[in-house]
Amino acid sequence: MASRADRHKRLLAVVVGAGAVLAGGDTALAAEAAVRDQIYELEWIGVFVILFAAIHLLAPLLRKFIEKKGEARIFESFGGGLAIGYVTLQLFPELELGTEVVGDSIHYFLLAGFVFFWGLEQRFVAAEATGSPSRTFHLHLTHACIYNWLLIYAMPANLSQGGPIALLGGIPIMVHLVYKDFLFCRHELEKFERSGRYILALAPIVGWVSVAVAEPSEWLSDVLIAILAGYILQSVFTTELPDASRTSFRWFLMGTVAYALLLALVPVFALLPGI
Questions:
Q1: C-alpha 215, offset from chain centre
Q2: Rounded to whole angstroms, how far apart are CA atoms 236 and 9?
Q3: Do 87 and 235 form a contact (C-beta atoms < 8 A)?
Q4: What is the pLDDT of residues 236-257, one digit of tens each?
Q5: Are 73 and 247 in contact (CB under 8 A)?
Q6: What are the distances in angstroms from CA 139 to CA 135, 169, 241, 262, 270?
Q7: What distance lies between CA 162 and its chain's CA centroid?
Q8: How far apart are the C-alpha atoms of 33 and 31, rounded to whole Å?
Q9: In the chain, what are the domain boundaries?
């Protein structure tokens, strides 16, 4: 007959074993949940990739419609207003949240993004002055590809409230991409139609693959969002706000108000079932 000590040892072994099984089960459930979250992110990022690529491939149809209607001035002003609304009402608050992870230094990354892309813009101007249009085109294309890649690679941080809400916030970015396409066609129509458009359509796909291979950490996502905000500020201030003679303040104001209303609807959409 087993002694009391042996029975105690066996009981302890059973308890420890059961605890190990339960702990293993919790670990397995946590791992399964992590995989589901990653698949959810990649699926929604894939939706954005398809939309962004389609915008570049289908933009000629929209451009022809805008030019036919003679509404380029309205489109430029409205698009600039949307972009300003996006930066001030959504990106800036996200940057403030990013200070919890990155600290106050996140504002330096915002400045670095602005200065870096402003420096690229100056190189474009210098290249045009020296009479090398091919080099200017390739610099602009590289600039736009970095932007498209950043949009997708920083996307995981924008999915914290869910894919549908992120999609709502992506509307002004889509308008922004259409306007970028419009500017390319205004200056380098032949080269852009021949190859540039397809290269830009591939950039979001490269971003999606980058996320799938090495998803950015929360710290890196916040830094990338800061750089992205710096780029959008630079882009709006230097290229997306036309001269006063070609600007409609009314439509610019409507763009900012439209984005503010869009953002105000986000909490309403978040309450809908299935969102």
A1: 14
A2: 73
A3: no
A4: 777 666 566 667 888 889 988 9
A5: yes
A6: 6, 29, 21, 34, 41
A7: 14
A8: 5
A9: 44-270
